[in-house]
Amino acid sequence: xxxxxxxxxxxxxxxxxxxxxxxxxxxxxxxxxxxxxxxxxxxxxxxxxxxxxxxxxxxxxxxxxxxxxxxxxxxx
Length: 76
Fold this sequence. Notes:
Layout: E1 11-14, E2 18-26, E3 29-35, H1 45-75
Antiparallel strand pairs: 1-2, 2-3
């Protein structure tokens, strides 16, 4: 993990087109501004993990459905 120290209104760059700026520091909270191309998805980690879990559940449901259909037609 890369650890960087930034002050208020200072930024870091990720690649050529993603900029993260420290907008405010209030107690233990830090507000970040992120400028990135529209095609880049940006989520809080807990939201990202939730999306991944839902996608995996949907994939497993599809596989189970296809397996059940395959067994159904095999019996006929």
